[in-house]
Amino acid sequence: MYALYLTALSFFSSFALPQAHEFHLSKTLIEYNEQERALQITMHIFIDDLEEALRQMGHDKLFICTKKEAADAETQMEKYLRKQFQLSVNQRSVEYTFLGKEVSDDLMGVWCYLEVLNIDQLKQLDISNNILLEIYDDQKNVTQIVGPKKREGYFIFQKGQSSDSVNF
After folding, report:
1. Is this structure's pTM higher than 0.70?
2. Is position 101 within any domain?
3. Alpha-carbon span 123 to 147, nearest angstrom
4. Residue 9's pLDDT is what?
5. Domain for residue 6, yes or no?
6. What is the average per-residue pLDDT within 70-87?
7. 14 in any annotated domain
8. Which of 98, 112, 139, 147 satisfies CB 3.0 to 4.6 Å to 43 for a cystine?
9. Range of the domain at 99
10. For residues 24 and 14, which has the higher predicted lDDT (pLDDT)?
11. How confident is the model at residue 22 (pLDDT cuts 50, 70, 90)?
12. What is the CA radius of gyration of the chain?
């Protein structure tokens, strides 16, 4: 019975607190919705890494996606994303709207939702993804693109290679 208790305790305690991760990775999905004429962007970033980047910019104790989250946490996240993640459509710089965020199921990451409206035709997409590259030498930013007619592409951005283009 004691062994069963220890096994159950070990299993459930692994879910109680987020564990430190040994790799530095963000994931981004950029989808072109032809019917809505919009780029819909979903981004996953590890919370501890994002908080470290924001701390180095002078924004400490944001407690992102917790009950103690600072009132300006989302504003600081948005500012950081605007600085580190840019897009151009058909060789014209575009502004995205920060729609919001939510914690990932494992409580280790944050999902950020962005959108660019009024994209009549997507012929070329230029991406600059510098998220966390200033913090970690081994940071990788995997970016998946789903363009017109569901054509897909992938990029892995890292130090020394943080921008690229795709033509449709």
Report:
1. yes
2. yes
3. 9
4. 36
5. no
6. 98
7. no
8. 112
9. 24-167
10. 24
11. confident
12. 18
